[in-house]
Amino acid sequence: MSNVLRLAIVDPTDATREALKGMLLGMDTVWLEAECSRYEFFADVVEQTTPDVGVVALDANPEKAITLLQQLSGSESRCVLLAASQSTDGPLILKAMRAGAKEFLTLPIPVEELSSALDRIAAQRFGGSDAKSRACELIAVAGATGGVGSTSVAVNLGSLLASEAGTSVALVDLDLALGDADVFLDAIPDYTLADVTQNISRLDIQLLRKSLTKHSSGLYLLPRPVDLQDMSLITEDSLRRVIALLKASFSHLIVDLSKSYSTIDLEVLNEADHLVLVTQLDLPCLRNVVRLMMSFEEIEGLRDKTRIVVNRAGLDTGGISLKKAKETIGRDIFAQLPNDYRTMVEVRNNGVPLMTQAPKAGITNAFRDLLKKLVGDIGGATAMGDEQTQQEDTRGVWQKFWPVGQKK
Ligand SMILES: Nc1ncnc2c1ncn2[C@@H]1O[C@H](COP(=O)(O)OP(=O)(O)OP(=O)(O)O)[C@@H](O)[C@H]1O
Ligand SMILES: [Mg+2]
């Protein structure tokens, strides 16, 4: 799914821009990251949104458009440039190609032609080592029973990951009735999963991002619906589309699953790269882990991607040792998180993640170790997702240029 091309278009002429946009929005492998109606602002748009492909329509002002192509191709941007025009004038095509356009699209372009041009770019983009670096990693977090610590795990993994350089992380609260990820992050979201689901057919990446609530750690939150009645809006289909859009937009996705293991949860499990199954060392939990692991066999690949994490290790809840737990479950424990009730209650009550409340605590380090084991070394912790913060600061500047996706 992550092999989706993110596009930005510039075309001062509304009619041709809309036509091209309509065609692009109909393609599964393309997300429209940004659109712009002024040549002079497009370089900023590209810098801020880092699309894979920049489409420059030439006809409104060929001279300015060619200068823009030159400017973009001479910049640091890795964006592949496409020129589009109704003209088939040889010298213009030559100029556009010399200015850095990879392909020249003659408008109106048949959808198959546009699609094959984009396929060629995608093959170059994702065929090589890029495929890996662009892939979004989805971590689902589930619990062996209620109150076992799954939201604590989801929120703290999410905030730690979001503070790493070069990541962009979203957390989706799929505990549709009683989810409390927003409380853990002291967030008052404008929009929820229900809003996003309802508007999914007209969402693009920018609008989606704006619908999420950004935490100071850099983590984006998509919370559960406010009204219980709205739970029914979230269907497997709509969720699949939301997840697809999120995967195209973020480097990592963390989903806090409900404890009902519903078809909605299973939809995410199918897509997940890792399932962190949080348990404690007591009999009811371990019994459920065994049951769950048996059921997981029914879903292809799920057993192998399940990582059992023992939370509140050290808390004596019935004398079950780690060794005994391993024997009972019949597989290894992926990681352990120590019991630290005081710190965990503080972070929950204050609505701040561990990395802020207790950056040096043992439990915070245990989360760091778990994260590293899950996603590898991402490049060392930095101060709060520098790249993102910078993007956020300047994003407002170009978004004013064009009203797409502005909050009503
Ligand atoms: N390692 C830990 N040590 C001590 N207390 C913990 C630890 N992890 C979580 N807790 C506490 O356990 C309680 C439940 O945690 P949390 O809400 O994360 O669990 P959950 O599995 O998401 O629950 P629910 O089933 O309600 O969704 C919270 O009060 C939290 O502070
Ligand atoms: Mg929870």
Describe the structure.
With 408 residues, the chain is of the alpha/beta class. The protein folds into two domains: 5-131, Rossmann fold; 136-387, P-loop containing nucleotide triphosphate hydrolases (Rossmann fold, 3-Layer(aba) Sandwich). Helix content is 46%, strand content 17%. It contains 19 helices and 13 strands. The chain has helices spanning 14-25, 39-49, 62-73, 90-98, 111-127, 130-134, 150-162, 181-184, 193-198, 205-211, 236-249, 263-271, 283-296, 302-305, 322-329, 341-350, 354-357, 362-375, 386-399; strands at 5-10, 30-36, 53-57, 80-85, 103-106, 137-143, 169-173, 213-214, 220-222, 252-256, 274-279, 306-313, 335-338. It has an eight-stranded mixed beta sheet, with helices on both faces. The chain is elongated, with a radius of gyration of 23 Å. It starts with a strand and ends in a 9-residue tail after the last helix. Mean pLDDT is 86; it is low at 129-133 and 380-408.
List the helices and strands and how they pair.
Layout: E1 5-10, H1 14-25, E2 30-36, H2 39-49, E3 53-57, H3 62-73, E4 80-85, H4 90-98, E5 103-106, H5 111-127, H6 130-134, E6 137-143, H7 150-162, E7 169-173, H8 181-184, H9 193-198, H10 205-211, E8 213-214, E9 220-222, H11 236-249, E10 252-256, H12 263-271, E11 274-279, H13 283-296, H14 302-305, E12 306-313, H15 322-329, E13 335-338, H16 341-350, H17 354-357, H18 362-375, H19 386-399
Parallel strand pairs: 1-2, 1-3, 3-4, 4-5, 6-10, 6-11, 7-9, 7-10, 11-12, 12-13
Antiparallel strand pairs: 8-9
Helix pairs in contact: 2-3, 2-19, 3-4, 7-18, 11-12
